Amino acid sequence: MSRWWRPELGLAVVVLVLGVLVVVGTLDVSAAASQLGLGPRFFPMLVGGAMVVVGLCYVIDVVRGGRADPEESEDVDVDAPTDWRSVGLVSGIFLAFAALLNVLGWIVGAALLFFGLSVVLGAEHKLRAAGISVVMGVATYLLFVKGLGVSLPGGPLTGVI
Amino acid sequence: MDSLQLLLDGFGAALTPVNLLYALVGVTLGTLVGVLPGIGPAMTVALLLPITFTVPPASAFIMFAGIYYGGMYGGSTTSILLNTPGESSSMITALEGNKMARRGRAAQALATAAIGSFVAGTLATGLLVVAAPAVVSFAIAFGPEDYFALAILAFTAVSSVLSRSIVRGLASLGLGLVIGLVGIDQQTGQARLTLGIPQLLDGIDVVIVAVGLFAVGEALYVASRLRHAMPEVVPVGRAWMGRADWRRSWWPWIRGTALGFPFGALPGGGAEIPTFLSYAAEKRLARGAAREEFGKGAIEGVAGPEAANNASAAGTLVPLLTLGLPTSATAAILLAAFQQYGLQPGPQLFDHNPALVWGMIASLFIGNTMLLVLNLPLAPLWARVLRIPRPYLYAGIVLFAALGVYALNGTVVDLFVLYVLGLLGYAMRRFGLPVAPAVIGMILGPMAEIQLRRALAIGAGDVSVLVRSPVAVALLALAFLALLTPLFRGLAARRRVTASSRAE
User: pTM of the entire structure?
Assistant: First the structure.
């Protein structure tokens, strides 16, 4: 791996590409024959153009070795190496939850989401985690659906609770 | 006194049983999310935005204001009892506060923080009562070009102050502006940047953006580098302090308020700079025993910055209410709440909805008093909240984020959008991009566009209309200067680095 490549370059390129996409995407907008002043294209062009400039500066800054401090937070060890396994598992669990929510219903889906995330993040007692997950799933459903009238998918448990 | 009468009317509105209950819920929730790592007032208010469909505006804003103030109180508890760096505005409090706690003076540190927050919050809200009508009478003559210049100033100031690297601040701002562009153009009805997806015609909801960037982004970031050792919480009883502590705290509270309020009111001022300045001032002014104590747990080093922190929150409300200008992420979300009610903060709001504005300001006094009562005797309870095992805490945060976002439209598409924004929030944290400019850009961007187009329509396409008023010229000049400051700071830092590397 060459020296100028760093993961941050990915984000910088995203900013640059997004700027280009905004400019290109705005060209599609048919500008209503502007009476006085500006049509719907002017401001997006301004933003897109500025994004391209900022993106270029960002890419150059990263390639030249510029960096900022990662955000500090109470539960984050800033010096630790990135734990890609946890990030991947959290992502996978969340995406699976989103995909299956309508099939599983809120109670089962939310309980599985909570259980999965707490185990990945290091919950030691699996049984206790499972118990808390079930309580969370049922409690949020009762509170928000029965109490506040929010509609959440019932899934197979529709009618049971 | 006209505004005094209005304020009294405001108390009349805020002191109804229902609104007192909303205030109590707000300050309790605010303290809770302030104490808990990983979530803050901005995300909490965002998650609660959907209640604006059912709750009358005055009650909703009384609750939101309570969350805002409560979050400030709660943050100090965390930084005093937990020896890990947290949000930057309460990091300064941790310097002396945590040392005090370790020397067995946790109760006094919490007391000076809570009472100082009360004193500063009350004084600063009083300043808000005086300052707001003055700003309103000045801003009543503002034209669209002035508002556009004001938005530009907010953009550049917030991007350059919140990050050490201006290009990262601007990148964050740009990401927010682009998100704000998505959807139907309000003036011509043209679809913009929707990629042909019909769900995007209404734009991307503020709730999804805020919850994605804050909650899901934070959860992924924590997952990536979790501190596996359980954080150490200093045990504490009821918060109290003796006569000597009172004597040493008074002046730092007043000085902290004097620093915090004006900085909070400035675009990009925020809470970080005044808390730091207050700490530096107290350290320099310390005499005798206190001077010895600095660095080992001096009460002045807690009292001053905590007061500055809270006063800045009140200061933030001045530009928000009088000009519709958000200067922090939480203020931007509050602005979004106003928009959900079809209200536009600014001079007209004081004219058309005096009951709402003054009811909210009155509720700040009430909320502050509630917070004092909630925080002094209940300190041990909040300390217990800090011991929630992190796996459950973050699993719960993600669960509520998913719940709030799904409940918006009842579609799982929003959950996938939430995840993508969470990834963005993760990357921004990882590489040190401040999140606030993105939130402010998203919410203020569309308003800046409207003002720009209005100004140019008045000028019949003549661009010089943007610099016709002296106010606009002054604001744009300040915006330009804000862009330059970090350049100088960067140069100075680089010189220092090269100097030190040469010395090695």
Answer: 0.91
